[in-house]
């Protein structure tokens, strides 16, 4: 039982999809709350620098007015990097992008953004409850075969806020890749609703932000990456984040790997075409 389960996962992670183009990812860094001033530019530099090694091209913006259907449909994934607060005036274009097969990656304080959007909360998997102070802590790698968990050490000593989450991402079908060892850090106000072990990074094969009838892309969230030095110097963290991005863009629901997909970076002969789903926003997503 256990063995065939693992075998199935190994196949799923390593299945090679036919590539139609270089994946394009939009890094979105708007902040309406706390801003990670030094980390954000360092992270963008590292991602743009390492992009060719995973065949991903990154654009970056902190301008919410770029969230139009025409602009979003060029991207295989949206990466919310240390966003905080209500960074989009509304989540309608985001919802349509997800319904059309778009993929999502949330990093660090992206779990403390868009608290007015059930779509966003479902797509990221869980929002933060609070943040213990920045400190060293230890994570266990629960999914060493997942590209974001491969070639890490386990246990792994990291630094940052071991966020507490308001809900258990596993309740939406997420699988936890990294879990914080609670005995390794100070936390006077733990979440009793985030499940155990303490989730720190997870993936959803079908991001739960999609509406019924939509094409579910993938979703990944990691709480790591608080310090600029982590991005610049921590080789294990770089493997983790690049593995997460690689896995996310390989959903098969976007043009980098699927010429008939509705969104994503398309080959010169193709055209992005209209979205299949233009239903107005409603809260019919799973919760
Ligand atoms: C624990 O954290 C929650 C969420 O931030 C907050 O509402 C609550 O007041 C905190 N409780 C204590 C005792 O600090
Ligand atoms: C490719 O995209 C089409 C159109 O969105 C979709 O119906 C199909 O399921 C996708 N293929 C895969 C492997 O996801």
UniProtKB/TrEMBL annotation:
List the InterPro entries.
Class_I_gatase-like, ThuA-like
By its UniProt entry, which Gene3D superfamilies does this protein fall under? 3.40.50.880
Organism per entry:
Crepidotus variabilis
ThuA-like domain ranges (all copies): 24-248
Organism's domain of life? Answer: Eukaryota
Keywords recorded for this protein, A-Z: Glutamine amidotransferase, Signal
Residues annotated as signal peptide? 1-20
- Can you name this protein? Class I glutamine amidotransferase-like protein
Q: Which PANTHER family match?
A: GALACTOSE-BINDING DOMAIN-LIKE SUPERFAMILY PROTEIN, SECRETED GLYCOSYL HYDROLASE
């Amino acid at each position: 039982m256990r063995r065939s389960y693992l075998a199935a996962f190994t196949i799923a992670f390593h299945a090679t999809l036919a590539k139609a183009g270089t994946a394009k990812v939009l890094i979105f860094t708007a902040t309406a709350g706390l801003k990670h001033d030094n980390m954000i530019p360092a992270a963008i530099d590292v991602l743009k620098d390492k992009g060719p090694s995973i065949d991903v091209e990154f654009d970056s913006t902190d301008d919410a007015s770029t969230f139009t259907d025409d602009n979003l449909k060029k991207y295989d994934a949206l990466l919310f990097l240390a966003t905080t607060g209500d960074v989009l005036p509304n989540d309608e274009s985001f919802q349509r992008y997800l319904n059309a097969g778009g993929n999502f990656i949330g990093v660090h304080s992206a779990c403390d953004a868009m608290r007015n959007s059930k779509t966003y909360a479902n797509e990221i998997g869980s929002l933060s409850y609070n943040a213990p102070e920045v400190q060293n802590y230890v994570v266990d790698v629960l999914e060493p075969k997942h590209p974001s968990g491969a070639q890490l050490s386990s246990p792994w000593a990291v630094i940052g806020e071991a966020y507490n989450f308001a809900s258990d991402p596993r309740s939406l079908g997420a699988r936890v890749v990294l879990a914080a060892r609670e005995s390794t850090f100070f936390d006077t106000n733990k979440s009793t609703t985030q499940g155990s072990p303490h989730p720190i990074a997870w993936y959803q094969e079908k991001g739960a932000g999609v509406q019924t009838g939509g094409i579910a892309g993938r979703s990944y969230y990691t709480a790591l990456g608080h310090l600029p030095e982590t991005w610049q110097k921590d080789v294990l963290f770089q493997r983790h984040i690049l593995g997460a991005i690689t896995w996310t863009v390989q959903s098969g629901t976007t043009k980098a790997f699927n010429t008939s997909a509705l969104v994503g970076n398309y080959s010169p002969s193709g055209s992005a075409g209209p979205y299949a789903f233009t239903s107005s926003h409603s809260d019919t997503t799973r919760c």
